[in-house]
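Allow me, if you will, to draw on your knowledge of protein folds for a short while. Thank you for your consideration; the sequence and its tokens are set out here:
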Amino acid sequence: MPTSAAPVSPSDASNTPAPPARRSRQRSAPRGRGLLAPLRHAAPALAGFALVRLTGLLVVANWADGEGEDLWALLATGWDAEWYLGIAEHGYDSEVRAGDRHSNLAFFPLHPAVLSAVGRLLPCSPATAGLVAAVAASVAAAWGVFAVGDTLHGRRTGTVLAVLWGATPVSVVQWMGYTESLFTALAAWSLHGVLTGRWVRAGALAALAGLTRPTGIAVAAAVTVAAAAALWRAHRAKRPESGRAGTEHTGRTGAPSGRAGTGRLRTARPGTAREGTAAAVRPGTRAVLAGGLLAPLGWLGYVGWVGLRLGQWDGYFAVQRDWSNEWDGGARTLEILGHNLTQLDRPFLFLAVVSGTLLLSLLVFLLCLADRQPLALLVFTGALLVIVLGSAGVYSPRARFLLPAFPLLLPAAVAVSRARPAAALLVLAGATAASAYIGGHMLLLYPGAP
């Protein structure tokens, strides 16, 4: 997958020369064609991500050996992974019987389908196939996270962003039989498609994300809202009074050019390589519309299918109610958060980490708003926060549910990338060590769901 491209306008731009946008000194677009050049461009980010995750894995492996626990079972078959394995092997429930507490219809179908496909390709058990798929998806996710950071702020920031995503407090689940790695990969590349004007790809990946997790609706919302905004700007730009509509559009489009965060788009200078790249990815109105319409189809399709399977229009939401996953506007979250912070003399470290992650995520989102991140990123992280914080479901997995919200790491990634090398290395090493310890604590000491 390509890592970055010049941001473009959804309307047909003229060939009138425009002043070249200022670029970051760190930005260096990959040269060459095919997959090899973008892979070389992303190699430092992927290597850093792999080093962070291998460090965490070694810490957990040594810890599990000391506790007499089976590392493979911890990673491949625990908690939600067992539900996905059951779906991959036996399929979905055909009904929800009276007295049943939980139905596997609460789990979306793409991850079990991937497990089945990998199991057919490789001579391994479904559980091992789940780990293989998770590791592969995590690399694709780290690449996508890097691509977004590279597009907005340059290669160094993209590299730091990918490493920080691999060093979040609960990043141990990136190499477990869970959906977070697959979902983040689809979300990151979908958002990158919006940022670079590849609207059909963005919509298709958002549709796949909507088949992966309930929070896939956040990716769909990001693409659809960004597409609607782009179409509106294109419509306004075509008015006679718009003047310079063919050469320059200002305002948030989803892909800033020049100084990151300005939201200003410029056309390429005629006769330059950048002009050819821009012409190749410049979407027309139909592509923008197609991407926006494609984005929610995966999520809507699965929710509708569950309704048909159960014979009631709100069948999926009835299943979620059985799991106590109703949306209550955050009342349950506030209650548990207050209890953990004020009434427990010695709360579990992991619960303290979850509470801190929720509070910090809210504060950083406000910073992202002030920094004027691209619209698609703000809608994605905002919708994800609303879903996660507004749910009345189990509290302990909330930090894991926010793992795909990598745009929240952008302010830190920018700051670290601008720091002195020694200071940056110290921050990344500290984050790696903390992530490794918290991952081991979560899997081996905390008794609840991760």
Q: What stands out?
A: DSSP finds 19 helices and two strands in the chain. Residues 36-67 form the longest helix (32 residues). The CA atoms of residues 30 and 41 lie 6 Å apart. The radius of gyration is 22 Å.
